[in-house]
Amino acid sequence: MSRVSGTQGYGEHAMVLAERYESISFADVHAEVAHLIPPAPARIADIGAGSGRDAAALARMGHQVIAVEPTAELRAEGQRRHDVPGLAWSDDALPGLDGLRARGERYDLIMLTAVWMHLDEDERAAGMASLAALLAPEGQILMTLRHGPVPPGRRMFDVSAAETIALAARHGLSSHHLGTRGDMLDRGDVRWSMLGLRRG
């Protein structure tokens, strides 16, 4: 199973990070793209699910959700916090998502919240191919892109929306949404792009 070092620094701080993630609601984080989430029941993969905040919220809406989280400690936190019908967990990781692809399922929505910045250029190229292969014919990808300084002990890259859109186009995906916002954890030097991709 493919692994990258983007998870560095997360396992040892899983409980603190989970508290931080859970302090902000799904509705607030995804307010700008809420209208793009398909009606239930949809098949949804939350890649880099962290504490499971988003995956659990989507499952409570009636979706069938698989939460993909490679950091064992965060995955355990998520499973402890969110015992929700319709929510399953998977130990898997970008760029290959080998376990998810082996299931043979396709997803109406793939979410990547604060994930893509952990992949280097080669990993992003391979990762986009994996995501495109997992997407249902009418499916879409909603992702956030982080812009700002890299915290100590973390592996991150500042990836532009333009680069991501161009990479997606190589796999038959086009952008249907692009927005920006500040940081919800009050980090003044961090901002986010919100990107929607779909086939065509």
Task: Explain briefly what this protein structure is.
The protein has 200 residues and is an alpha/beta fold. It is built from seven helices and seven strands, in the order H-H-E-H-E-H-E-H-E-H-E-H-E-E.
Describe the fold and architecture.
With 200 residues, the protein is of the alpha/beta class. It has a single domain (5-199), classed as Rossmann fold, CATH 3.40.50. 30% of the residues lie in helices and 26% in strands. The protein contains 7 helices and 7 strands. It has a 7-stranded mixed beta sheet, with helices on both faces. Helix 1 packs across helix 4. It is globular and about 35 Å long. It starts with 13 loop residues before the first helix and ends with a strand.
List the helices and strands and how they pair.
Blueprint: H1 14-22, H2 26-29, E1 43-47, H3 53-60, E2 64-68, H4 72-81, E3 87-90, H5 98-102, E4 107-112, H6 121-134, E5 135-147, H7 161-169, E6 173-182, E7 191-199
Parallel strand pairs: 1-2, 1-4, 2-3, 4-5
Antiparallel strand pairs: 5-7, 6-7
Helix pairs in contact: 1-4
Poorly predicted runs are: none
CATH topology heading: Rossmann fold
Q: Which descriptor suits the 3D outline?
A: globular
The average pLDDT score comes to 90
Number of domains in the coordinates?
1
Keywords, separated by commas or semicolons:
200 residues; alpha/beta; Rossmann fold; seven-stranded mixed β-sheet; 26% strand
